[in-house]
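Reply to dn_fold:

You asked what the input looked like. This is it:
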Amino acid sequence: MPIPRRDLLLAGAGMLAPSFGRPVPVRVVDQESGQPLAARVRLVDARGGEVAPLGHPATLEKDAQQGDVGFQSRRFAYVDGFFELPPTAFPLKYQVVKGYEYVFAEGELAAANIRDGAVTIPLARWSDLSSRGWYGGDVHIHHIAPKTCSLEMDAEDLHVANILTSDFTRDQDQFEGKLNSFSRGKRLIYVSQEFRNDQLGHINLLNLKHLIEPLMTMQHTHHPLHLGICDQARAGRLCLLGSLSQLAGG
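and this is what came back:
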């Protein structure tokens, strides 16, 4: 359930006139602690146009693998808990999302309501599984660069990210055969591989120490079977876990 607009916190006193031309700081915080939270933010102006925070690209590059994203014709910006907007951009509708354990925040930002030049958007946590020893992760990720993955993991509230290189991706050079060097703190990144065949299915090979061939073109024949690929990986101690992610339809 979205946080009602009335719960949007407008900090300070003293109105900021748009004519001043100063950027308007916006903070995303935990509702209980007040600590900043990385999140995924969508901003839409009065005409329905997508608005990017200052410092973010105005348009998204085709097939971009880092930074802001487009999802189902909607543009989202990843922020680390702080971003700025031009004062002439208001009014704006906003949506702020942080994973599955925070309530989505939705509402409107209007220039007449901005006081002391600062806006604070609180996010309410409704679940905290990590406090009980459970950690969120994704074992099937494509088209994300390890360089920016930590911020995206923070924003999506993930602790483990398995980026899978494959025959249709162009990130084989990011494979290290170990925990990725862009991992930090509790955010663990590992570049592994998805091995694909249209009839036999797609299989995720995790914790790889070496990539498995063929790599740059999909295996179009039924030989070697996926069972052989798994045996090859296990025999060479290339992976600790394999998961079948797709089966051919009957």
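The radius of gyration is 22 Å.
Hope that clears it up.
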